[in-house]
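Appendix B: complex inputs.
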Amino acid sequence: MPIKPHISASCVISNNTVYKNGIAVFEKRETILQEFLLSIYQHFEIKYPRFYKMDSLSKLGWLAAEILLKDSLETAIYQPVDIGVILTNANSSLETDIKYFQTTKDIASPALFVYTLPNIMTGEICIRHNFKGENAFFIAEKFEAGFIQQYVNNLINNNTLQACICGWVELLGDQYKAALVLVEIKDHGGMPANPTNIFTKENLLNIYHTDNG
Amino acid sequence: MSDLKTQIIAQLNLQDVKPEDIGDDQPLFVDGLGLDSIDALELIVLLQQNYKIKLSNAEDGPKVFRSVRTIAEYITEHQNQAA
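Resulting structure:
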């Protein structure tokens, strides 16, 4: 039955730690980002060969979505067009843009070129989960919980979406952070709606700061 | 052909695949190894970078990249032409 938009799951990846619903579920210290991302993939025993071809930003967002949705989203109760993805970050796909630009001095890399847009990450998530709903990628200097809450609420309130994966996926150099939430209006016996999981700016911000960062 | 398989795995970042997993005549696209159009472009880059061979006619692509054997034959033929 329809209820107020609520956060039915969250996933934060930062500081070499993966948090699901506020609880640290995986940690690997003293490792570089690329190795950390691969270790998450291996730890959660994911089998998806396309993962290896993704750039680091897509890997980060894709893994966060994977862990966010595992045991949390009942896709059977939605049509693919009912589920959307709204993401934000500060530096777009700059990490891969730079890498791609470097290859153009010799032979430009087609595999890198396809990741020189941040919404490719959104596409990777949608391909994996067969989401066909509204999606968008916004660039902002910092995490704007109020903007995301308002934008996603509008999509839900005007019946464009019934569920949405939204949040922040940022990566540049060795600095990275993913903070995603699953917002739903259907109550399917998951976490009951309560003040801490109603889809508000404050709750979204609290989740973003799960890692105290 | 083993070297070529190793180069293909490295170029296409097929980290779950070992050279011995790829049959000499196994189709590389769609039902075979499941490569896509971006992989096809990467194979063209591989020929250019590793063998200095440019695929002059794009329509030859499906025939040349059908399997590891067809790629190897194309390389042999065009290296001989260059020599």
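Residues 37-51 of chain B form the longest helix (15 residues).
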